[in-house]
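Appendix B, example 12.
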Amino acid sequence: MGESAHRWSRRDLLRRSALLAGGAAIGAGVSQAWQSTHRRLPLGGGPASATLVNQQQGLAPGAVVVVWSVPTGQRLVALTFDDGPAPQWTPMVLDTLAQHRVPATFFLVGAQVRRHAHVVRGRLAGHEVGNHSWAHRDLAQLDAVAAYDDLSRSHDAIADVTGSAPRLVRPPYGHLGGAVLHAAARLDYRLVLWSAQMVEREFPGDPAGHARRIVADVRPGTILLGHDVGPQRRLVALRGLPAMIDGLRARGFTFVTVSALLGADVTPAPTG
């Protein structure tokens, strides 16, 4: 009985050893797959890097500011729209903003600006433009030179068509790879993300409900993300934009551009 138990124990040990070896092989395979997928993310000179290897960096200020919101006791909110311009929705947004005398910041895609220059030419007075890349690629997956070239190309297109050179950048998807930070510093941009955004998926076919949700969520210093291009569900937010504006004004909020918000005489928000 003792020998049998010993033999089974030995078999069990061998079986477990085989399983462990198999697991190690699988683990090595997963590790190799990860390395293959992420080999464009080296620590020097590639997308994960915020510096160039053995080169002068060419950074204007040598620093970049990243902003999600602005701490302030004033009831200020910055309305922002990404991914445009496009003829389907951008005019609707501009018409609503003009009707309600609301300034906004448009983070424009350079290729869209070239393609649909007529949509925004002469219509952005009182608004602000920012850079949202040339073709909405994920800049965090590019190396430092490619990210800079992309944003520079978009910068020139936006300045040429709108007459205003962007001083703000918002990377597609909000992805902050090292190359994005490096390019933003080279272009002397402020990097602007957001602290609240439209939640269209939660309110299908209910613009009024969506507007109430956004009005309730906004806080002093909020940078609010919207889109003037995209899938049809986003129209819920755009159709509810007048109610959103009225609701926020009823709460005492003033609409400003992002740069105006950043330049506001901010004071600590009261506590308690």
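The radius of gyration is 25 Å. The chain is about 45% helix and 10% strand.
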